[in-house]
Design goal:
With 214 residues, the chain is α/β, with parallel strands linked by helices. Helices cover 50% and strands 8% of the residues. It has helices at residues 2-6, 20-30, 46-56, 70-79, 91-102, 110-124, 151-161, 166-173, 177-191, 196-205, and strands at residues 34-38, 60-65, 83-86, 107-108. Strands 1-2-3-4 form a four-stranded parallel beta sheet. The N and C termini lie far apart (36 Å). The model is unreliable at 130-138 and 210-214 (pLDDT under 50).
């Protein structure tokens, strides 16, 4: 990964470490812009490292995940990770994700969003004591109070939930990136959410916050 990233002239790999604890310590000491974290590392996994990095440094954590790391995805969201990237991506996709995170955007691939949706549905299932008319997460956008938002804001939220970047949303809806950013700011203000990933989860589930650990 260091060789791949070093091949892009806009990047400088300032350090590599062997585990999550070293990653957190390095970010606290050196303050790199973005920390690319594997999920499974010795001594401390990437989720715990992301939690420390987000809480104590200005570095933006970006998580690398695989299909068999499903149990970590929601924890990574709660920990403050700014992106969730599959390891099998092309180098250019990884490059673009790092740049997006550096520019204060959240990166959430469609397949990871599907995993989040499935996890939330599964975690809710044991709490259902009787049959309900419809699955709570079967129709994205139906669980929220739609009267709070304009039609354009609802369109923006839907595209965020689909994993589109600001540029992609702007192209699809034929509006400027600045206008898209303004709509996102309005959505964050109305909901009290903090970033795009939370908007995606809110749109899918109706939950304004990811439940805190007990």
């Amino acid at each position: 990964m260091k060789i791949i990233l070093s091949s892009f002239e806009e990047f400088e790999v300032v350090g590599t470490v062997e585990d999550g604890a070293q990653a957190a310590a390095f970010c606290e000491a050196q303050a790199p812009d973005v920390a690319l974290l594997d999920v499974r590392m010795p001594n401390m996994n990437g989720v715990e490292a992301a939690r420390l990095i987000a809480a104590h440094t200005t570095t933006k954590p970006l998580i690398l995940t695989t299909f068999d790391d499903d149990e970590y995805i929601l924890e990574a969201i709660k920990a403050g990770a700014r992106g969730y990237l599959l390891k099998n991506n092309d180098p250019e996709r990884i490059r673009d994700a790092i740049k997006s995170v550096h520019n204060n955007h959240d990166v959430l691939q469609d397949v990871v969003l599907d995993k989040i949706k499935a996890q939330l549905a599964q975690s809710a299932a044991p709490q259902q004591q009787q049959p309900v008319p419809a699955a709570p997460y079967a129709r994205p956008g139906e669980a929220i109070d739609r009267s709070l938002f304009t039609e354009r804001e609802l369109d923006i939220m839907e595209q965020i939930a689909r994993g589109l970047s600001n540029k992609e949303i702007s192209r699809k809806l034929f509006i400027s990136e600045g206008t898209t950013a303004n709509y996102i700011t309005s959505i964050l203000n109305k909901t009290g959410l903090e970033h795009r990933t939370q908007i995606a989860i809110y749109y899918l589930t109706g939950e304004a916050r990811v439940p805190e650990e007990e």
